[in-house]
Design a protein that fits this description.
The protein has 124 residues and is an alpha+beta fold. It has helices at residues 23-28, 43-48, 57-68, 75-89, and strands at 7-17, 30-40, 93-103, 113-121. The protein has a four-stranded antiparallel sheet. The protein is elongated, with a radius of gyration of 16 Å.
Length: 124
């Protein structure tokens, strides 16, 4: 058996945060969802069953939470900060995919949310 690829994914993280271009969005806040996928070599953990051989999901959540609590105008900026924080804190991470969704954005349309999804690779 050969491990070809490995990812850790946190799906549907929910936050009330203060992101947006409009002053009211930054003042009252809104609801957001975040999906985070990190690509790294997890083969050692497959065999060892040891937490030190993988990434701690709780620590990854803490990274997302910290960045979501810093107000930004753009979802792209929030996603970029999350990815940078992951790269800075986890040297074994090779790639990061971040989706940030603003639930029910104030744009006069009937929709569940507006999202950005960004794929980042570690600089060599």
């Amino acid at each position: 058996m050969v491990l070809r690829s490995s990812h850790i994914t946190l799906s549907g993280l929910r936050f009330h945060a203060h992101h947006g271009v409009m002053a009211q969005e930054r003042q009252t806040g809104g609801d957001f969802l975040v999906d985070l996928q990190v690509m790294c070599d997890l083969e050692k953990a497959v065999h060892s069953d040891d937490l030190s051989d993988t990434l701690n999901y709780g620590t990854l959540y803490d990274v997302v939470h910290q960045e979501m609590m810093k107000p930004s105008q753009l979802l792209e900026h929030v996603a970029g900060r999350i990815a940078q924080h992951v790269f800075d804190g986890f040297p074994q991470v090779e790639n990061v995919v971040v989706t940030v969704t603003k639930v029910n954005p104030p744009m006069g349309a009937d929709l569940k949310g507006a999202s950005v999804t960004l794929f980042f690779g570690r600089e060599e």
